[in-house]
Amino acid sequence: MDNIDAERRSKNMRAIKSQDTLPEVIVRRLVRQLGMRYRLKYLLPGKPDLTFVGRRKVIFVHGCFWHQHGCRLVRPPKSNQSYWLPKLERTKIRDVENIAKLNAAGWSVLVVWECELKDEATLRRRLQEFLEPSSEQAGILGTFAENPFHLGMELSRYE
Ligand SMILES: [Zn+2]
């Protein structure tokens, strides 16, 4: 492990510690702040972490390692590769299959990655864009999301 890795790792640990909670809990809190109601571990393919039955939408909160995000947080396991690699590969295939099944049944799927929790403002916008298609239909989403006035309002409303 080099210094940058060590630094990043301890920064991640601190970030996680200061939240004092799990990624799912953070996402649930952000969703609640948006005023949305959801079900936990609803019986659907892959047992989505949050299910919005009326909206026919689900959210998965994925750990970057277990679900092989391929982001900078993920490093291939150095030891026991014959055990880990097929296991991780199976998880990845299952994820793809579950999302395909959900889509085929008319469910929209959002995957939130563990590494996205570092930027809550951006994540909150992503959740909002996913859950509230009305702003999409209005066709002003891009400018709206980038508008600093709107962002300021959003921050003052939720924080
Ligand atoms: Zn990631």
UniProtKB/TrEMBL annotation:
Pfam families: Vsr (PF03852)
Gene3D superfamilies: VSR Endonuclease
Annotated CDD domains: Vsr
Record EC number: 3.1.-.-
Keywords, comma-separated and alphabetical: DNA damage, DNA repair, Endonuclease, Hydrolase, Nuclease
Entry superkingdom: Bacteria
Any one GO biological process: mismatch repair
Keyword Disulfide bond: no
Gene Ontology MF annotations: endonuclease activity; hydrolase activity
InterPro entries per UniProt: DNA_mismatch_endonuc_vsr, Restrct_endonuc-II-like
Role: May nick specific sequences that contain T:G mispairs resulting from m5C-deamination.
Similarity comment text for this entry: Belongs to the vsr family.
UniProt protein name: Very short patch repair endonuclease
Organism: Pseudoduganella ginsengisoli
Taxonomic path: Bacteria, Pseudomonadati, Pseudomonadota, Betaproteobacteria, Burkholderiales
